[in-house]
Write a structure and sequence with these properties.
Strand order of the largest sheet: 2-1-3-10-4-11
Number of helices: 11
CATH superfamily of the largest domain: Bordetella uptake gene, domain 1
Shape: globular
Order of helices and strands: HEHEHEHEEHEHEHEHEEHHEH
CATH class of the largest domain: Alpha Beta
Length: 323
């Protein structure tokens, strides 16, 4: 007869043995990297370079898989619920890690409790883009019109609770104007309607906004941050204009499910930091107008915690939710 004490001991030791085995041989098969956004987004080329490096140095395929929907929470939830073995990773953004989990109800996952941060990879300035038809050529033009006729000016977003939506809410609150929100099913359709003049404004990452501004199909009123971007050297920053509270960036990071062995997290972090300094990555980020971040898992965890507090307050005060 197996005694109860032996059963309990086996139950306690089994996860430890499994974790030790996972650490010793990782990876011994292909690793899936979940991209919670549609193919073609700004994080995809970054993720592909990281995946190629991981595959080269670790000897197993790292395969990108798109699981889209619900503001990136479908992909985020899938990883949060996956086995904590390092074989399912999340290539998420600001929305995935600090916004969308607090917008959707019931809450799909807790990014602080259910995910294991690996590394914050990149961050990008956000550009306030105005349509040609709007007539806005400066922030002053916009504020004058918005205060004269509250609610007349329209602002597009990539969907309710998306980063562009939340940025628009922060902006409206900070400068004291009322804008009419027009949500779209993604950033592509929103930008298309900026170009056709169907909506007035859109807060978009610089990699997507810059080509439209450079071709003069749209106008940039400002870019978030403290230093002007080489891609848009004539566009003032939010700091220059006296709005440091608008220095919000869209960032990309890599995470696993909570409970993933520390040695696996540290291995992936170390190699991700290596590839972030590679010539191929440096050239890509310069082309996109995006800055590298890098650093430790603890640094990413701190960033998630700080920004989650910020965005939860905004989401609550502006009553943003999706059932």
């Amino acid at each position: 007869m197996i005694r109860r004490r032996s059963v309990l001991a086996a139950g306690v030791l089994a996860p430890l043995r499994w974790a030790a085995a996972a650490e010793t041989h990782y990876p011994d098969r292909s690793v899936t990297v979940i991209n919670p956004f549609a193919a073609g987004g700004q994080s995809e080329p970054i993720g592909r370079i990281v995946n190629a490096h991981f595959q080269s140095v670790l000897g197993q395929p790292f395969v990108m898989e798109n699981r889209v929907g619900a503001g990136s929470t479908i992909g985020g939830q899938f990883v949060a619920r996956s086995a904590p073995d390092g074989y399912t990773l999340l290539l998420g953004t600001t929305s995935t890690f600090t916004i969308a989990p607090y917008v959707y109800r019931p809450q799909p996952y807790d990014p602080i409790k259910n995910l294991a941060p690996i590394i914050a990879l990149t961050e990008a300035p956000t550009v306030l883009v105005a349509s040609e038809k709007s007539g806005f050529r400066s922030l002053e033009d916009l504020l004058r019109a918005a205060k004269k006729e509250p609610g007349r000016v329209t602002v597009a977003s990539a969907g309710i609770g998306s980063f562009p939506h939340v940025f628009a809410e922060v902006f409206a609150s900070l400068v004291g104007v009322q804008l009419t929100h027009v949500p779209y099913r993604g950033g592509g359709p929103a930008m298309n309607d900026i170009l056709s003049g169907q909506v007035d404004l859109f807060f978009e990452v610089i990699s997507t906004a810059a080509p439209q501004v450079q071709s003069k199909r749209a106008f940039a009123l400002f870019a978030s941050g403290t230093a002007r971007s080489p891609l848009l050297p004539d566009v003032p920053t939010t700091s220059e204009l006296g709005y440091p509270g608008l220095n919000l960036t869209s960032w990309t990071g890599l995470a696993a499910s909570a409970g993933t062995p520390a040695s696996i997290v540290e291995l992936l972090n170390r190699e991700a930091n290596v590839v972030m300094q590679s010539d191929k990555m440096t050239d890509l980020l310069a082309h996109l107008g995006i800055q590298p971040v890098g650093g430790s898992p603890a640094k990413m965890a701190e960033r998630i915690a700080q920004e989650a507090d910020l965005y939860k307050g905004i989401i609550s005060s502006r009553q943003i939710s999706v059932q």
